[in-house]
Amino acid sequence: MSYELNRRLAAKREPLQTATTVDPVTASIIRGGMETVCFEAATYLGRAASSAIINQSNERNASIVDANGRLAAGAIGTPHLTFITQLTVRYGLEHFERYQWGPGDVFVGNDPDHGGGHLPDYNVYAPVFDDQGELIMIQCLQAHQGDTGGKDPGGFTLEATDIFTEGLAIPCLKLVHRGEERRDSIFLLERNNRFPSFAGDLAAMIGGVQHSVKLLEELIRKWGPETVKAAINYNIDHTERRVREEVAKWADGQYEATILIDHDTLGTKDVRVHVTCTKAGDQLTVDLAGTDDRPELVGVWNTFGNTRSYILTQVVAAMDPTIVKNEGFFNAVEMIIPEGTIAHPPPNKPAALGSFHPACEITEAVCVALSQVVPERSAPQVYKIGMPNAVIGVDANGQMWMDQGVDSRTMDTSAVKGIDGWGSCPVSLGNLLLSQVEDAEGRFPIINISREMTTDSEGPGRWRGQPGSLNVKKVLQPTTAMAWMVSAAHPLSGICGGEDASPYSSRFEVGTPNEYVIELSVNASLPEGAVIAYQHGGGAGFEPATLRDPEAVREDVLDEIVSVARAQDKYGVVLTGSVEDYDLQVDVAATARLRSEMNAGQAA
User: Fold this and answer.
1) Gyration radius of the chain over CA positions
2) So what's the pLDDT on residue 364?
3) Quick one: what percent of the chain has pLDDT higher than 90?
């Protein structure tokens, strides 16, 4: 049933029926109004939510889906959430009569087998009707929840073999009926969540969509429903046309890439993601044939909806950024996602960890493939973090708490053509913010000992990646800690001849006789005072490192990004003087000789 449902939910949808036409300016004004409403919805949620993961980290996104289930508008947010909300809504629309849709209703869905991402990503949505009772659009708010009621806090169960281990799966549930809360439904969700902050988060999501519905009703009254429908049709068609114009400029051909995940959560090595991007005329086809389909794999199953979203997140990055992000991208890009692979699993497979891996590897593979045809737009939209080191405990009142390990760090910030990697987050995270370490220390019994960038952890290249950081944390009471370590054997790929990023690593109980390295995955009990040291991988390089300006390498050494030895070994730059005396200089003649030798060796 799941494969059949996925095919149906992903099928191309028709334009809204209207005899009205609209000019480009009016269509753009109406689109701007819808995007502003989405921004208000996301802002409302961020200000009203109770948990740090939403009100500080901003792991949420707002979008508008039209009455036919097409993505019509979105806010600036987390990119991969932008492109997934419409499938959950489409499932609800299929059961319009069954769920008695009407004005004032609010729904929620999270089920991976019914259009959802992974269980923690709740999509709360509400229909918008005109004054004559016609459904015009649906306002959506999608946000990551701290828990889903499964076996382990947070919904991340390393050994899960089915979705039921991870938590409560919701195909479609009505939370508000004709403006009145359904306390039975809301209490059901609250009872299946470990954290008291969830009640506030859910209330904020409901309030956010209700607020936005009122704004959209005003927009429809101002412009008239037929004009609004015509504007939605125009904007989606315009995006499709612009995407095809971009693709038409590329060279025809097939562009392939293979990316490996170190291992699944039980140790099966070298899990494979393969992509072939075919460009013919104005048509781009992204085919994941050849991606791993071993049924015994554990923890590496991405949902169908997530896979579509992560593919599109990278395709969008390869295009002119002024192209509006809506259903037009889906109409212009064909995606082939073979059934039974880790990118399109059988029903009831666990999916919580799949939003890390293979989701990131799917995006990375598309980036590496497209770098062969549009290198100037090849910025990997990934976070190869494996799984954050989640620290879990129980307070004096018996209430469970979780530090999800998503606080300040640098990681995965790769170079692009002409620009070194910069900042602390990869571009894929959009407006997602890293929580302040001071806030985590105020909420949880932990203390952050250090947050330091690591010298020689940049991916070398003509333009280099940003270094990763070593994050050291101490727990102040006995806790449980969970981690899944990947991106050690197969870190983030370099682009166009740039070198790969530095690998990830993690150690528990640092500085004691019991210190150990996390080689695979762990659900460990830590004593009071235990120290965790998590080395985040840096960003990858772009183009060969021996093409980097020697003076830029000298500056990197002075900034302690690169050591003197690495400057010579990786970049072929010979330096005289010392960092300590600040008299470092490039030996131009020796550098030219060394680079000539290195390039000859690489050619051989």
Assistant:
1) 25
2) 97
3) 80
Q: What is this structure's pTM?
A: 0.95
In this predicted structure, what is the pLDDT of residue 1? 58
Distances (CA, A) of 62 to 65, 93, 234: 10, 18, 21
Say if strands 446-453 and 521-526 run parallel, antiparallel, or are unpaired: unpaired
Instruction: Tell me how far apart the alpha carbons of residues 364 and 373 are, in angstroms, rounded to a whole number.
Output: 15
Query: What is residue 55's predicted lDDT score, i.e. its pLDDT?
Result: 78
- In the structure encoding, which two tokens stand for residue 221, read together? 């009254």
What is the rounded CA–CA span in Å between residue 174 and residue 188? 12
Provide the 10 A C-beta neighbour count for residue 342.
28
> What pLDDT does residue 31 have?
97
What amino acid is encoded at 538 in this protein? G
Provide the sign of the torsion angle of the four alpha carbons 109, 147, 432, 521, taken in this order.
Answer: negative
Show the low-confidence residues of the chain (pLDDT under 50).
none
Q: How far apart are CA 436 and CA 139, in angstroms?
A: 30
Helices (H), 355-449: 359-370, 437-443
Q: Contact 14/69 with Cβ under 8 angstroms?
A: no
Q: Which two tokens stand for residue 29?
A: 């004004």
- Listed by start position, the domains of the chain span 2-240, 384-543, 546-603
Q: Looking at residue 162, what DSSP letter applies?
A: S
Strands in 281-430 per DSSP E: 283-287, 333-336, 387-394, 400-403
What residues are paired with 470 via a beta bridge? 452, 535
List Cα–Cα distances, 548 to 95, 308, 537, 567, 569, in angstroms.
58, 36, 21, 10, 13
Question: Directed axis angle between helix 359-370 and helix 304-317, to 10°?
Answer: 30
Residue 214 to residue 284: CA distance in whole angstroms: 39
- The identity of residue 557, as a single letter, is V
**404 close to 289: Cβ distance less than 8 angstroms:** no
Output the pLDDT for position 35. Answer: 97
**What does the pLDDT read at residue 157?**
86
Q: Give the pair of three-digit tokens for residue 304.
A: 């169908």
